[in-house]
Amino acid sequence: MTADAVASGRTALGIELGSTRIKACLIDTEDASVLAVGSHAWENQYVDGVWTYDLDEVWSGLQIAFAAVAGDVRDRYGIELTTVGSIGVSAMMHGYLPFDANGQLLVPFRTWRNTSTGRAAAELTEALGVNIPLRWSIAHLHQAILDDEPHVPQISSFTTLAGYVHWKLTGRSVLGVGDASGMFPIDSATRDYDGGMLDAYDRLADGRVDVRSLLPEVLVSGADAGELTEDGAALLDPAGTLASGIPMCPPEGDAGTGMVATNAVAPRTGNVSAGTSIFAMVVLERPLSSVHEEIDLVTTPAGDAVAMVHCNNGASELGAWAGLFGEFAVALGSPADADAVFGALLTQALEAEPDAGGVLAYNTLAGEPIAGLEEGRPLVVRTPGSDFTLANFMRAQVYGVFGTLSLGMEVLAGEDVALDRMFAHGGIFRTAGVAQRFLAAAVGAPVAVGDTASEGGAWGMAVLAAFRQAPAGTQLSEFLDGTVFASAAVSVVEPDGADVQGYAAYLERYRAGLAIEAAAVRAL
Asked: Where are the alpha helices (DSSP H) in 53-160?
């Protein structure tokens, strides 16, 4: 039956450009089961003080990932992948890709990781009356204006990475509402850019740009976002096997695909996505009472209001330590693959003291606005009386992944935001019962992990592409409950009392130790 699904085009293809991998996932639209996958590793570059990716690498990486999916289909089912039922593209949110009237990129892509927009973000927050984080697209545009950058008068449009790829594949400059909400604030009543805030920005910009004409069109999930053109098909598949004319769904950001991949689009649900960065999304029942610099207000792919806690640093430092222990295993003459090393180390953390025995770990490779850090310095810190065991070291490392996230979640707790269940996805959750258990302690709520957790955003984007084929009038939450997650295997872990107390003690030390981090940034 799976071969029939591929041959008949009863499929949806999701592509996500993440911070370290470009991944493609082909699913059966009847039950969202995975039919084939492909990926390509890539890394951001720090060039002339800017975190960036070269756009040529975007296309070479997409082609490699698509070719891997096509090869997987060929190997599994013995047929060529010539068409699919629908396609969707997602990518890292925010950032800055400005183009002139001829479609030429005016400055190198500035990713979400850049924190050089402090003055702009502060002015925007004051003028618009909502928190505008450093990484938002409007903050990058406004900072370019404040800095009198020569490219500003030439801007004809600007967009996100997902919006750029979709534009090249279809010829349409559109964004899914979730991704658009990381460019400029959205009014959840209209599912479009907030009109009053656009007017406020016009006053702030004082004629230097007409932001309405620069922003992409906003579309909600399931909307018609165009078709794959002949040029677009050639960009994805230079071999010429893939047909044009395939329907495309609105491009989305990685936050939106994370919500879909974890079925967290209804009020009182949330999700945590852990990768190079880590962020939590909580779907709100009501607006927050005041502006908080730790909280971004974005939306689900359907346009409902979401409180987002975004941290620039996630599991990269944990992965670096796993790599180091892998090298040690090789030096001992007992090499093991990366997954085995990672799994063994995480399992050790279960044997640790609940507060990690006095060991502290900071995962800050980059600056962390929530923690007040303009730059990062990864650190392991302990007192002479700490119990320095492998188990405590590893628990401190996992706790450290969630540390800054907890600082933001405390703000939501102060707003009495209710959370029935948190869903988690990302590679750190592939080792059963470890990071999931510790996250439950960190957020004080049950944490669910599904069998799609390791596929992550690419699978979530494929689901949104499948939703493009759903009957008119179908709600996204209904589609997820009735079609996608109706028979999904989900593991739920409740907070453990000892872990909750231990994590609280760890977080108290973590908060106090941020002064050590700040000193390290000044000194090194």
From this structure: 55-77, 118-128, 137-146
Strands 186-187 and 217-219: unpaired
| Residues pairing with 141 in the sheet | none
pLDDT at residue 430, as a whole number:
84
Range from 47-61, 414-428, 483-497 that averages highest in pLDDT:
47-61
Domain carrying residue 423: 350-451+494-523
Residues 240 and 386 in one domain: no
Angstrom distance (rounded) from CA 382 to CA 400: 13
- How far is Cα 128 from Cα 170, in angstroms, rounded to an integer? 33
pLDDT score for 276: 85
- Domain end, chosen from 260, 280, 311, is at 260
Domain count, the chain: 2
- Report which of 473, 460, 479 is spatially closest to residue 176, judged by C-alpha positions: 460
Domain boundary among 196, 231, 260: 260
C-alpha distances out from residue 246 to 86, 230, 468, 476, Å: 6, 10, 11, 21
CA–CA distance, 341 with 337 (Å, rounded to integer): 6
- SS3 call for 446: coil
The burial class, CB within 10 Å (0-12 / 13-18 / 19+), for 161 is buried
Give the percent of the chain with pLDDT over 70. Answer: 99
Contact residues for 362 (Cβ-Cβ < 8 A; gap 6+)? 317, 377, 378, 379, 380, 381, 400, 403, 510, 513, 516, 517
The tokens for 207 are 């004629």
Tokens of 138: 């409007």
**Pairing mode, strands 11-17 and 87-91:** parallel
1 pLDDT above the threshold of 50: yes
Choose among 401, 402, 417: nearest CA to 295.
Answer: 417
Count the Cβ atoms, other than its own, within 10 Å of residue 89. Answer: 33
DSSP string, 205-264: HTTS--HHHHSPEEE-TT----B--HHHHHHH-TTS-S-S--BBPPPEEHHHHHHHHTT-
Mark whether 360 and 250 lie in a shared domain. Answer: no
pLDDT digits (tens, 9 = 90+) for 54-92: 999 999 999 999 999 999 999 999 999 999 999 999 999
